[in-house]
Amino acid sequence: MTTAYTFGKSLAPLGNDAVEGLAYYVNPRRSYARTAYDRTHTFVQSYVYELPFGKGKPWLQEGVASWFLGGWQVTGVLSLMTGIPINFVASTGALNTPGNTNSPNLNGKVNFLHGIDTALWFDTSNFSAPAAGQFGNLGRYTTDGPGFFNLDASLFRHFRITERWDLELRAEGYSSTNTPQFGNPNSTFGAASFGHVTSAGGNRTSNSAQK
User: What is the pTM (predicted TM-score) of this model?
Assistant: First the structure.
């Protein structure tokens, strides 16, 4: 087994390295925030386990049970991550600063509902438009989007044919649990889909082989 855990925080004046310019070029200090790819927690667990049955193993070394249960091996990689940040944006028309961005006002805190598609991921009722000529009170990348869960797993069986030849059957499943990996909800205040998650990935794929 191998286990890896990362606790991290990425801060920069640019949200996505040099791809983005300064979000608030009229106030560069306001642009300094978490980056678009920042994840606070990342946990990865991998394992290889041979079932303890069959010839040369502790249990069921002989007989029919040994034939059915011997030679099996399971492997997998489990990945758990917190979501990437959400950047809430609002119209910049009233700022009179072409190319600058703005954020909405948040009254209270972000209330997560965890809805998908037609249901809201977060409550949109406590967001409001900033006053004319004013920046919104919400900072950049202050809230995490949906987390990430993925399990890639494999099942193997090894058959000894002769002393020189053997046979291996293998079945592999990527995203074995078929858990959807949801994208961030729409974070543009005033958009028709504001607060809705409309994208996802992580479909299960599988294959089998013998050699």
Answer: 0.78
